């Protein structure tokens, strides 16, 4: 994976810490909307990590595949990804 | 635009017809959630048109830019688009 | 519909104007990503109109149903809507 | 939280297991799009958990607040939540 490993790892560990927190909130029977808010906040962190991964993918893997003269598979993957994200 | 013009045009005209319908619903003071549902249905049609446009863009413009040996701008646009859609 | 009719109508007419513009862009065979950007901008306007409609629905219809002592149907509709939007 | 604790907990533990897997994928320098796909799959699980939490919130907390004759705060929270989700 071409994104900065330290940055992505930090985000993922934050998300995991939040998940542990939410598990505890469920156990302690905390208020529904507090749980819901934390779930949405964790989704946002994963989104941010995903955008970081995709940006680096474009700048590295896709660019290299294009430079190598055989970008077919990479472009097909990108088209499928765009289709999924635009849904 | 490289997507099938007839197909995209048909979707856009359907969306426009729905918008006209929603404008009439507002005028007739119809029920909020009926208006809301129609608004979301129209958003879905525009999404579908957008996916069609993006798929054809990948298959034509991006592919051709790559084949021409000067794909830099196209790849940069794609990276920005992915970043927007993944948000 | 309880939202300000003039405000919602203005947004819907803006969206319709944009759709007309996009239809013309397709006809003139404009660049894919310009079409795509306009499609996403129009989706944003419809989202904004929808949020306006939903806010007023909460403040009027739901509130009144609760005050009338028979909110069952309204609450069920809301639960279904939340489920759809959270997907 | 009113949703079935066992079901929500199971989803959260699945999500946490996936996060651990993604952390390992990053460490092992796995392919960007494999990491991205796992990130999106984990987001989907959190979405599913959130929908479960919100459905139970509607059926329990909101319903009870309405029955108690003092639903103002609950309805205001819901309006804010709808606004966020419809964005």
Key phrases:
homotetramer, 87 residues, mainly alpha, 0% strand, elongated
Largest interchain contact: A-D, 41 and 41 residues
In CATH terms, the superfamily of chain A is Metal-sensitive repressor, helix protomer
Query: What is the helix content of chain A?
Result: over 70%
**DSSP E strands of chain A, number:** 0
What is the CATH first-level class name of chain A? Mainly Alpha
The dominant shape of chain A is elongated
Count of spatially separate domains of chain A: 1
Indicate the mean pLDDT of chain A: 97
Radius of gyration of chain A: 17 Å
The span between the termini of chain A is: 25 Å
**Beta-strand residue percentage of chain A:** under 5%
Oligomer: homotetramer
**H/E order of the elements of chain A?**
HHH
Structure annotation, total helices of chain A: 3
Q: Indicate the structural class of chain A.
A: mainly alpha
- Supply the CATH architecture of chain A: Up-down Bundle
Low-confidence stretches of chain A: none
Main sheet characteristics of chain A: none
Textual characterization of the structure:
4 copies of one chain form a homotetramer. Chain A is mostly helical and about 90 residues long. Chain A has one domain: Metal-sensitive repressor, helix protomer (Methane Monooxygenase Hydroxylase, Chain G, domain 1), CATH 1.20.58. Helix content of chain A is about 85%, strand content about 0%. The first copy, chain A, contains 3 helices and no strands. The first copy, chain A, has helices at about 5-25, 30-65, 70-85. In chain A, helix 1 (about 5-25) packs antiparallel against helix 2. The longest helix of chain A is centred in the middle third of the chain and has 36 residues, at about 30-65. The first copy, chain A, is elongated, with a radius of gyration of 17 Å. The mean pLDDT of chain A is about 95. Chains in contact: A-B, A-D, B-C, C-D. Chains A and B meet through helix 2 and helix 3 of A and helix 2 and helix 3 of B.
């Amino acid at each position: 994976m071409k994104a900065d490993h330290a940055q992505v790892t930090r985000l993922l560990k934050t998300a995991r810490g939040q998940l542990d927190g939410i598990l505890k909130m469920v156990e302690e029977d905390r208020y529904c909307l507090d749980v819901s808010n934390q779930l949405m906040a964790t989704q946002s962190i994963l989104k941010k990590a995903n955008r970081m991964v995709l940006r680096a993918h474009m700048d590295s893997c896709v660019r290299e595949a294009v430079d190598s003269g055989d970008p077919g598979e990479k472009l097909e993957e990108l088209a499928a990804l765009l289709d999924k994200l635009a849904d």
